[in-house]
């Protein structure tokens, strides 16, 4: 399966499979944030989510393929892209503020536009942050770069900051092909869209996800992501009950064994995604959200309220390219679902 170019292409492909979208809400540009229902009618439901970071397009294609291929008696809900705006690219989000959609193909062009058309709030080295219209725009990622509540971020409180994808040679995410979406929280902290699930103030996208989860009460949540490495890993969550914890571990074992047996490369033995992870066997990490801070992401929130939850991470530079990235994500998810079905057999 190839990468989808635009959000509309993704929705059209899913619609061609006979699925009808349920509109959960609308992003600031009016794009629908949607879920598709598949599978059978058995509870508990399975929730599959992808695309919360628009630069991670193998997860989006894997989610679409899973929805098309899964055969299960359980209800399946797919949120195919949690950031429709970012998926449409950096030129698109710039055009929301500028009126016309500019042609942008390099970070240098982005820098020139921001300095010429925007009110520059911060500039140092290669980093430029400017506000144009309703939104902030930056030349690069800003997570963790600034202290919470710095004065120059005040004009962007509650607003979005977009920066362009910049890697080369990554199928599905060429330079400026996607726009990564950040949010400046009411406290003046720069975060991304996969936070806010446990906060009163939240952007529309996590509110949509949170509301759907409250309605369907998922027994398993799978969030499909990517990272900048060349191997595969996933993060698990400690559960609220002993039974859920046992099945989380069973699913984790089944997933990593399947990926290992497939021959796919795993994240290096010494790899650690962050200090807030507990290492399991190679390729398996247990995320402790309380140590990380920043608010709960989708899998954190699911584990705190509903049951087993995993964040699946394929490496953007895996040797088999986009196809292997999608295949590995699909394999891990299918194995988790098969083990989930054993629980309720």
- Going by CATH, the homologous superfamily of the largest domain would be Zn peptidases
Oligomer kind: single chain
Query: What string gives the helices and strands in order?
Result: HEEEHEHHHEEEEEEHEEHEEHHEH
What's the CATH topology name of the largest domain? Aminopeptidase
User: Span from first to last CA?
Assistant: 31 Å
Helix content: 25-40%
Biggest pleated sheet: 9 strands, mixed
Query: Which spans of ≥5 residues are poorly predicted at pLDDT below 50?
Result: none
Biggest sheet: strands side by side, in what order?
1-2-4-3-11-15-12-14-13
Question: How many structural domains does the protein architecture include?
Answer: 2
Mean pLDDT: 97
Number of strands: 15
Estimated radius of gyration: 19 Å
Give the class-level CATH name of the largest domain.
Alpha Beta
In CATH, the architecture of the largest domain is 3-Layer(aba) Sandwich
Strand content: 15-25%
**Classification by helices and strands:** alpha/beta
Q: Give the number of helices.
A: 10
Shape: globular
């Amino acid at each position: 399966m190839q990468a989808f170019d635009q959000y509309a292409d993704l929705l059209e492909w899913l619609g061609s499979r006979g699925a009808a979208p349920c509109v959960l809400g609308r992003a600031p540009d009016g794009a629908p944030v949607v879920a598709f229902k598949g599978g059978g009618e058995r509870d508990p439901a399975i929730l599959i989510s992808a695309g919360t970071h628009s630069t991670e397009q193998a997860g989006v294609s894997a989610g679409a393929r899973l929805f098309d291929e899964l055969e299960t008696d359980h209800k399946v809900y797919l949120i195919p892209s949690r950031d429709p705006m970012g998926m449409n690219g950096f030129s698109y989000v710039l055009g929301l503020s500028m009126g016309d959609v500019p042609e942008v193909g390099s970070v240098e062009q982005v820098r020139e536009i921001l300095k010429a058309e925007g009110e520059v709030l911060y500039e140092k080295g290669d980093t430029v942050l400017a506000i144009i219209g309703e939104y902030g725009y930056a030349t690069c990622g800003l997570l963790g770069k600034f202290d919470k509540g710095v004065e120059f971020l005040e004009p962007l409180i509650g607003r979005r900051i977009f920066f362009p994808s910049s890697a080369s040679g990554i199928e599905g995410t060429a330079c400026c092909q996607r726009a990564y979406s950040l949010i400046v929280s009411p406290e003046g902290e720069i975060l991304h869209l996969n936070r806010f699930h446990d906060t009163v103030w939240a952007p529309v996208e996590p509110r949509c996800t949170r509301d759907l989860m409250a309605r369907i009460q998922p027994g398993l949540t799978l969030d499909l992501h990517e990272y900048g490495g060349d191997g595969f890993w996933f993060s698990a969550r400690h559960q609220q009950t002993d039974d859920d914890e046992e099945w989380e571990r069973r699913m984790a074992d089944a997933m990593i064994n399947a990926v290992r047996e497939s021959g796919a490369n795993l994240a290096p033995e010494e790899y650690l995604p962050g200090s807030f992870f507990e290492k399991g066997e190679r390729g398996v990490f247990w995320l402790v959200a309380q140590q990380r801070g920043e608010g709960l992401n989708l899998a954190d929130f699911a584990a705190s309220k509903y049951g087993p939850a995993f964040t699946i991470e394929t490496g953007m530079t895996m040797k088999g390219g986009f196809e292997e990235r999608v295949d590995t994500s699909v394999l891990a998810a299918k194995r988790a679902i098969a083990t989930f079905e054993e629980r309720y057999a």
